[in-house]
Amino acid sequence: MADYEDARAGVFPRKKFMDLLKSYERGSISRRHFLGVTGLGAATMALGGAMPGLFTRPAYAEGDLGNQLSIATWPNYHNPDVLQEFTDKTGVAVDVNVFGSNEEMLAKLQAGSAGWSMFVATNYTISTYQQLGFIEPLELAKLSNYDAASQAQRFANEGMVDGVVYAIPKHWGTTGFILNTARVDPKIATWKEFWDRAMTDYTGRAIVHDYQLTAIGMALKYYGYSFNSVDTTELAKAEELLMKAKPHLFGITSDYQPPLRNGDAWMSLCWVGDAKQLNRDDPNMLYVLGAEGGEIWTDFFVIPKDAPHREAAYAFLNFLLDPAIQVREAEVAGYPLTDKRAVALQPAEVVNDPILNPAAELLSALEFGAAVTLTDPNRAEIIARFKSA
Amino acid sequence: MTAALATSNEGRRKSVVTALLLAPTALWFFVLLILPMLVIIVFSLGERGPVGGYQAALTLKQYASLGSRLAAFKNTIMLAPAGTLISVLVAYPLAYFLAVKVSPRWRYGLLVLVVLPFWTSLLVRTYAWMFILSGKGLPALLAAIGFPEIQMINTPFAVLLGIVYAYMPLMVLPIFVSLEKLDKRLLDAAADLGSSPLRSFLTVTLPLSLPGVVTGSLLVFILLMGEFLIPSLLGGGKIFFIGNALVDLFLQSRNWPLGAAMSLTLVIVMLVLITLYVRLTMAASAGKSRSLP
Amino acid sequence: MRIYAWLVYFFLYMPIAVIVAFSFNSGRYAADFQGFSFAWYGRALANPFVTKALVNSLIVASVTAVLSVILGTTAALALERLRGKLRAVFDSLIYVAIMVPGVVIGIATLVALASVFDAVNSLMASLWPAAWGSAPRAGLGYGSIIAAHTLYTLSLVILVVRSRLVGMDHSLVEASADLYSTPFNTFRTITLPQLLPAIAAGFLLSFTFSFDDFIIAFFVAGPNTTLPIFVFSSIRRGVTPEINAIGTMILGVSLILLFTVQVLLRDKRQGNAAEAA
């Protein structure tokens, strides 16, 4: 939320000024201003989106986009101002649905009738979604802002199946752990130490994700196995570690920022965006990529087959791919970008940030999540037993 | 003859009207209660699909593997009665105070104040405790006045507290009603016969208010059986109830047949409990009416 | 004893007070109180995610309440005339609808509706003339949340209205019939006015239930997020007092509505108190 404030304060003032000027020309400045100040404006816009036909579309809408689309995504992943700007430009209101994990989204897709126009998916889900027929090959002709050449290949490749583009990257990132060095030994550098110390001197102070990929993956790393293993004996060892650690954990949750800030928890599995936010507010928060390895990932935009408001979804995706817009989205989400054109627009301190963009040799040990982990019944069962034990 | 005809006509018309009035509700119950339950029964006999979800089959193995979520049942079966018991202990004196000690002028107003929070957002009220029990809340306050630093959130204690806080109002009501119905002349009679206040409470008041306690306990217990929010917010993913296991089975591990079998088992357990409760309270009130001429 | 009672009231209202107090915190983080400010209310109301979810919740709750009152009242009137097995079937359905936990209702409804939609959509697609473009598709959305909420709230309304019917003065209805008033006229002039407080209470209880429900909506929501779903995801993630401001507003709305219920039902307080359970 803090980022949201930063994003509101004076990014692209010139653009804002132009918008203001435009609305002034339309003669609606006072009303809009009033609505904006009272907060009623946003409510009215939402009402307009909720009741199609009640509000007419602005005159400059391009093509027949309808007035609505819905996106399924992660919490705190978008810049509200960017969404508002898209609505102002096209008359299409964006419904945002927030989910906690890829597995949760897959469950809703399997149930059917989710009604999303587009959604966010992590690399390891793409091939499964493609096989199950949940997503369609993207019509790149409709995405004039997409430039395959400007994408970092390592990340963009994960969005392709048999050379066909099904998904376009939004962010990439790493998964490591965070230490509150005011309370714990700053020299913890490996997953082995992380788990061992969590079960001994820092008992009751560590958090593990409630998410199969990383929780099981990082337990596998304790033994030096692959992050993606589905080998039953290796998984059995990982389960043993998880069960042994459970009584010592502060929590099993993917929402670890509040307890870390409150001082309840001192160390946690951590996605890089959270690490950046925590570190910015408290320099004692140290983000570590475990020496044995860990996760590197890409999050993508995908469009479901038979997506409702499909044209609007393409227009929105194209809008989000505008390098300047990507930068504004990144300011809120806090994760690094894969598009070189957008990276070029980011401030140097973001691009050179050692947390967000670690040195290349640190990245080489990291693994992309493998498709098999999403559907492997053993992994699903282990994480369920870990949580319910 | 004509009169009889008119009545039978009217009778027919009346039953047509009744049917029409009832039709939408009947449709609702069918589509949103009976049909979903039938689907759940069908699902519970199936198998987990290769990528999760449901795959048609005819097997009882999901019921056989309910044991793999034993911990959730155990947590629920242990913490739910504990929460219920504490709720009784907290609620009884308050109900007694309201029913017996407070002047009738204030009685209902105060009672409403007890019930009111129950009808407001459970989510927000539980969040309040998340906030209070976290490191910068109550523990910090206690540490400031010299107590050792203790962890409160994500413990069984936090979940128990959340449960009692959320459902205690439900306990007060039935106990209050049963105490209010109590004939005060019985207490006067007991006093006249030289019974001490404590003795008359134990021999007269308590037994007569027992139906209220039973009603309240079952009400709270039943609600706790399906609880999801309180353990998930105050338990930090470490304390799992059946409700949490169900959400996990449908949304994370995506073993829908097992989830269906678990849902069905839960509903059956609850229906048995409710039947039991109706029998018990009926027997109790029958006993009471016999003892009070 | 009096002190004990005060303590319990303190226990009941202290958390609510804490949320309200911290909603006026000017600081950036929820847990550090830094000064008094209304800023977070402004922020919450200007946040399009919040307002959108709020509007969705208001739509869902209003429609649910209206539907429940219409269906519940008519059903209560009809059940009054019904005897025997059919009556027993309906009575048990009402209790099952109220007793089955929200988690189970949510899951079962999602799975059932998904199957129904699948069948309907493939039927529509095969019957739809190709010249008209692609066939409309049924899916989860406002409708599915409203439908699932109404199952619970209409049962609630039946119970509330029925207890009023039982306590009603039937001599007036008979007198009206004796005076050759039509049944509908009798209903309009005699029965309805007497039922009105119960209907109003049923409306408000349905509204608050639907407005506050998280778990059912969590499963059956389509592309529209309701306020509790939004709050659930942000209290887990978020750390700003914005969430306290939203919580305070939610509590405020519920409390006002509930006070109204109490006032409406004050002439039969005791019966109502038992029902509120």
From TrEMBL, chain B:
Membrane topology: Multi-pass membrane protein
Xref: SUPFAM superfamilies: MetI-like (SSF161098)
InterPro entries: MetI-like, MetI-like_sf
Main location per the UniProt record: membrane
GO cellular component: plasma membrane
Keyword Transmembrane helix recorded: yes
One Pfam family this sequence matches: BPD_transp_1
Residue ranges of every copy of the ABC transmembrane type-1 domain listed in the record: 73-277
Subcellular location: Cell membrane
Membrane-spanning segments: 20-45, 77-98, 110-132, 157-179, 200-222, 228-251, 258-278
GO biological process, one term: transmembrane transport
Gene3D superfamilies: MetI-like (1.10.3720.10)
Keywords: Cell membrane, Membrane, Transmembrane, Transmembrane helix, Transport
Family that this chain belongs to: Belongs to the binding-protein-dependent transport system permease family. CysTW subfamily.
Record-given protein name: ABC transporter permease
Species name: Pseudaminobacter soli (ex Li et al. 2025)
From TrEMBL, chain C:
Keyword DNA damage listed: no
A GO biological process held by the record: transmembrane transport
Coiled-coil regions, chain positions: none
Keywords: Cell membrane, Membrane, Transmembrane, Transmembrane helix, Transport
SUPFAM superfamilies named in the record: MetI-like
GO cellular component term of the entry, any: plasma membrane
Magnesium listed as a keyword: no
Gene3D superfamilies xref list: MetI-like (1.10.3720.10)
Similarity-based family: Belongs to the binding-protein-dependent transport system permease family. CysTW subfamily.
Protein name per UniProt: ABC transporter permease
